[in-house]
Amino acid sequence: MPLRLARFRTDERGNLAIMFGLSLLPVMGLTGAAIDYSQATTLRTRLQAATDATALRLCQLPRTTTASEIQTKALAWMKSYTGSDVVTLPAADFKVTDDPRTIEMKSVMPSPAYFGKIYNMIGSTPYINAIPVGASARCAAPVPQDFEIALVLDTTGSMDGTDKKGISKIVSLRKAAKDFVDFVADNPAFSAQTRIALVPFASSVAVEPTTLTNAVWLDKDAKSPIHWNNFESDKAYFNSRFEIFDSLKNKYTDWKWAGCFESLPYPLNATDSGFDPARNESYYVPMLAPDEPGDGSAGSVTTKYKSGSVTRQTSSNSYLDDSTSKSYCKPDPDDAVSAEKRACKYANPTGASNRPASGLNVANGPNYGCTSQPLTRLTTDFTGLKAKIDTLYSRGATNIQEGLIWGWRTLSPVSVFGDGVAYAKPNSRKVLILMTDGENTWNPTSQSTSINKSVYSSFGYYVNADGTKAADYGKPTNRFPQGTANPLDADDARAAMDKLTSTTCANITNMGTPIEVFTIGFSVDNDKIDQKGIDLLAGCASKPTTTHAFIANDSTALLNVFRQIATSIGALRLTQ
């Protein structure tokens, strides 16, 4: 027995097993710690992203949202972002201040500790079941700025089309534009002094005629060199186009002036230059579509009139009979130019035919081509503005430049309205958002049987009755930049309008304090904007174009683009 005990005391064969067993716990603890803390690190990354996103979203809540409502929404959004109900927001670490709004928050979430009991056994950590993971964020809305924003919106006939979901483009536009206005109204980044203008456009832009009757820049005395294009300047009958409108509205009330203007001569039509009474070309001429040769049949007609080698004249907007029984309007004309230019036929209109606008059909008469609702000047009445957006309808051709220049004029401190604040005013920003679903369009008519070669537009005709042309560079009636070819067909007309548009955009870009320009092409699958049109919009947008030029392919995309623009100009930031 003593011998056995002695041998037992000196036997080392079991020591290795005991030592291995004793060392296993630390090894397992270290391995488990690596696994558990790796999972905790991954969770913290996710938690930080969720906390950042929640903080930014909270700073975009309406100004009227209370601190308690903010905290409730914060917890709901954190649970949504993390996909977990165990995330918490310690009340002591949740702080909200205003003017400007800032939000500080901390989030906590447990990360499972699968090896916690081992840590506890070796006394290395108090955490048995979970490791608490935390994240924090602080967002601050910018100091509220005064914004002046022009919404320049295409309301042409093609906006009556639908996207792939069958939703009308004009309906989508109304929704997206109103959503934009609501965002601006509620977002704390926009001061209470922020104003928005609405500029619907088609082939022209209208102002509210009843509010501008006394504006000094209206060409009431026929001073502009383009005032009598296509009309006899015979003051025995009328002193201005306004007087012709006054005579015509006695025949039909909707033949009163609808508020559109002819484009100013170039280069005044590509800048926001203010009205100068010493410069006759700076007066604004009311857009008055001449009664084209014919008997007033209210549609496209072929007449008996001759013009040079043309033996029969075709007209698209004859709304009066050129022949009258009035002695002062004799003899009857025998050629198309005389029939179109004569002023006496407007003095006591006869044979008049009124075809009101219906659906996509443009009304004939003196307001032919003036199809858009009047623009709304800069306003803080966002409720009234949304009501105006709700009335937008689709009719007419596309003149992107006319919408662009009138949008600029609404923002300008020096143009005809003079509504905008100074360009360099501190803490004030000017933004122009241009949306179109098409390309510049000025439709031709029969080249062989029309003296004008085109329909009437804000540029007049391809060829006016007096022989002047739209791109007679160097003449007072010219409307386009140097080097522009006189339009002969739709392609020529588009090229001229595109050049005038890009020139206008360049003039905005080259200002000392440029207006920030966003462009949106609404290019749905069944009515796409071609690459030339997309390039024109991209070239007009402020740089970088990746953040200022957008293409929307359906109603949902259009809504998202307007929201993205609204968010970017009222940008929020994380400060921690």
UniProtKB/TrEMBL annotation:
Domain VWFA, first and last residues per copy: 388-565
Listed InterPro entries: Tad_N, VWF_A, vWFA_dom_sf
Chain segments carrying region Disordered: 289-332
Skewed-composition ranges (Polar residues): 299-327
Protein name (record): VWFA domain-containing protein
